[in-house]
Amino acid sequence: MLELNDIEAGYGRTRVLHGVTVPAGKVVAVLGHNGAGKTTLLRVAIGLIKPTKGRVFFDGEDIASLAPNKRVARGMAYVPQGQQAFSQLTTLENLQLVADGRRRGKALIDAQLARFPALEQFAARKAGLLSGGQRQQLAIARALITEPKLLILDEPTEGIQPTIVAEIEHTIVQLAGEGINVLLVEQHIGFALDAAEHYVVLASGFVTHTDQGGSAAVSTVRAAMAI
Ligand SMILES: Nc1ncnc2c1ncn2[C@@H]1O[C@H](COP(=O)(O)OP(=O)(O)OP(=O)(O)O)[C@@H](O)[C@H]1O
User: Fold this and answer.
1) Which of 100, 169, 195, 206 keeps 20 to 30 A from 89, CA to CA?
2) Strands 198-203 and 206-212
């Protein structure tokens, strides 16, 4: 599905990524310490940053020159870090912003409310009054209303209470089962590797390790990251 080849990218004259390659896979985990370049890589994937070198393939098509909206139209969705939602709008209104105008908009909202019971329970509550974990679920639900083939998630469990972390992890596994691919930046290495078909470890913008996922990879990755 999504494949990044030999990507160089950064901000202005600062190069952050140095020849990064990410293979396709149902769930692909991008791991690394703070500042390693994980978010930058996701921004390249969705088209917010244009790489200075390298190629981005989606469904076999080279999309490196496509704007983010065109990538979304082709089936990519991006949930940035930080549980973003329109805090003055209710949960339902946040979902309607994306769903209105879509064929089957109401059914798409209902499907996400069924997936995330907390959102159904607090459908009339302003998003600013939801917990961080519920706002994260709302952000994921909004992305899923676009019916993506690939969901790009930047640290979806960061700063979230453990019960909802487990729910979000369950959702990611469920999505893969539904045929939605996931590109995942995640601090919880055990979970990320369990869920991942492939992983890459980034350090200072270089890929230091890459292999198949699975729980057997945990010790290798911990050693690679010195944690
Ligand atoms: N908008 C920006 N402008 C300039 N430099 C940036 C920008 N965003 C990130 N950087 C720099 O790029 C490097 C990689 O940052 P990035 O956010 O991609 O890392 P990360 O692995 O996602 O880290 P974290 O886990 O802290 O989010 C860092 O040195 C960071 O300071």
Assistant:
1) 169
2) antiparallel
DSSP assignment letter at 126: B
Q: What is the pTM of this model?
A: 0.95
User: ipTM for the complex?
Assistant: 0.96
Query: Which atom of ligand 1 is nearest the CA belonging to 37?
Result: 18
* Top CATH class, 2-224: alpha beta
Question: Is the CB of 188 within 6 Å of ligand 1?
Answer: no
Protein residue with least CA distance to atom 8, ligand 1: 40
- Give the residue, out of 7, 16, 20, with the most ligand 1 atoms within 8 A of its beta carbon, to mutate for a pocket test: 16
Neighbours of 31 (CB within 10 A): 27
Give the C-alpha separation, 48 to 60, whole Å: 20
What is the domain partition of the chain in residue ranges? Answer: 2-224
What residue type is 143 in one-letter code? A
Token duo for residue 95: 């979902």
Task: Report the relative pairing of strands 2-11 and 14-22 from DSSP bridges.
Answer: antiparallel
